[in-house]
């Protein structure tokens, strides 16, 4: 049956998407460093205040605070800073930067688990919050938007070197609306299928242990996909990389719906993760190539806000599929069709005016 435990987290992710336009505009106006630091402070406070919780609504309020700044901690700042600092190798570096979110997801539970077993649940939240505050200090000390003097471009003022469309110019571009649809379509596997993966696999005959292991392979593939497709994007462009990713994702979803052989899952699960995980890296690169970096925060913030539709529709699709038919087949088929439609959308995202040359 559908896991309702995932619904609050998806709802909070939607809140984070809605905050993205505001954070993106602030980033372009006041600088990446300060928006990133502010977003991290909000996240840290959400953990530092949890030991004071005494009501259920306290947990919801602090979780809301945590996700409000989510876009300002990873996707928005990484997209702009990597584009500035590593113009010749932005694909692979973008992949590594996007993997940082996954590493954080592995590291923070380990820190919390240590504090929980050694001290108390209050101490575990406090230690996580304190760790994030250390990242805030590092952000204030290390983050800047100056072009490195030892890079392919001589050090000059960022205002002269960083070019790109304004948000109003992007809104008048047909490509902007193609990207909006891509943001929604590319988020659907995460919002509609990933939360139901274990339930679906057990429903089609896998043991709980096997389904859980398959989910771990999805996670591992997701981390690898960010880096591998980032490197691939440097060789053949991000648009062509996304075509390959969406095609592989369509195949993986179809095979996951009803695996023809029991052991095929060990190949299909990491393929699903590999192609799904690459989306954040590739769509960021496509946005850079299409609209440049000067107003990257404002433009990407609005594009990211469109994912709220995926976070709203995904859980409904997964739940309705099981409630009406007793399986998740309808959800898998629907998402596969949407990703296949995404292939058509990618063909419309032609080589942008800010496309960097491929690495040698």
SSE layout:
Elements (H helix, E strand, L loop, with lengths): L5 H25 L1 H17 L7 H13 L6 H11 L4 H29 L2 H22 L15 H4 L5 H5 L2 H20 L3 H7 L4 H29 L1 H20 L7 H13 L1 H13 L4 H10 L2 H18 L3 H20 L12
Helix pairs in contact: 1-2, 1-3, 1-15, 1-16, 2-3, 2-4, 2-6, 4-5, 4-14, 4-15, 5-6, 5-11, 5-14, 9-14, 9-16, 9-17, 10-11, 11-12, 11-13, 11-14, 12-13, 12-14, 12-17, 16-17
Describe this structure in words.
The chain has 360 residues and is mainly α. It has 17 helices and no strands. α1 packs antiparallel against α2, α1 runs antiparallel to α15 and α11 runs parallel beside α14 (279-291).
Describe the structure in brief:
By secondary structure, this protein is mainly α. Helix content is 77%, strand content 0%.
